[in-house]
Amino acid sequence: MPSQVVHMLEDVLDDRLPLAPMSGAAFDRLMGRGWRVLGYCLLRHNFASWDGELVSTIPLRIRLDGFSMTKSQRRALRRHADLRVTTGPIALTPEKERLFALHAIRFRSGGRTSMEAFLTPDSARLPVPGLEFQVFEEDRLLACSYLHVGGQSVSATYCFFDPEETKRSLGHFTMLLEIAWAQRMGMRYYYHGYCHNQPSQFDYKRRFQQLERYDWAGECWAPF
């Protein structure tokens, strides 16, 4: 077994907490230590299996103080000006479940095939208020994305979209919507998941200014 893998196995971190109501400040502290919301729990892990290999996970966040979108990101917002966007508390509906099922076909393996793997009927209030963004073309639902809102930070919980609209880059579009909303609310940090220590499908999360990464060993954040 390669020494890098042996070292990783010795330092594996895989923690979970059941969802429970908490203050915005408590939520901020957990997000600041590499936690995130997934389904019925909060979790953090410093490893993942990717393409049959054990890789390191790197939590990411954007420091919103001083953040500005690039020209290409502003163009992306303008390019979707024809779409209608609504916001409100998270609500699971049959229409969203059908859209999620279409999106789930894109997963590389069996994966998670139900919305409740990522969200629950109580996601609007647990562990902190949950907000959803819905994107429509006229009356047709194209995409949904979800945030949990702490005291000074927001955590992007999940996004899914119609696979027929892949060329629209709706996942990127909803991230920009969430960031813009968080800035308007005066938030300090936007937590948007993690990437790996080697190329993967999560590399798009690195394409932002004011990007920071979490150092598991030092338990601190640093510019990426």
Shape: globular
Number of strands: 12
Helix count, DSSP H or I runs of 4 or more residues: 5
Helix-residue proportion: 10-25%
Distance between the amino and carboxyl termini: 30 Å
Largest sheet: 9 strands, mixed
Oligomer: single chain
Spans where pLDDT lies below 50 across 5 or more residues: none
Order of helices and strands: HEHEEEEHEHEEEHEEE
Average residue pLDDT: 91
Please tell me how large the radius of gyration is: 17 Å
- Strand composition percent: 25-35%
> What is the structural class?
alpha+beta
Task: Compile the SSE list and pairings.
Elements lengths: L2 H8 L3 E5 L5 H8 L4 E3 L2 E5 L1 E4 L2 E11 L7 H9 L4 E6 L4 H11 L25 E8 L2 E10 L3 E9 L8 H15 L4 E8 L14 E5 L4 E4 L1
Parallel strand pairs: 9-10
Antiparallel strand pairs: 1-3, 2-3, 4-5, 5-10, 5-11, 6-7, 7-8, 8-9, 11-12
Task: Considering the chains and any ligands shown, give keywords for the structure.
224 residues, nine-stranded mixed sheet, globular, 35% strand, 12 strands, three-stranded antiparallel sheet, alpha+beta
Quick description:
The protein has helices at 3-10, 24-31, 71-79, 94-104, 170-184; strands at residues 14-18, 36-38, 41-45, 47-50, 53-63, 84-89, 130-137, 140-149, 153-161, 189-196, 211-215, 220-223.
Describe this structure in words.
- With 224 residues, the protein is an alpha+beta fold.
- Helices cover 23% and strands 35% of the residues.
- The longest helix has 15 residues, at 170-184.
- The radius of gyration is 17 Å and the shape is globular.
- The model has no long low-confidence stretch (mean pLDDT 91).
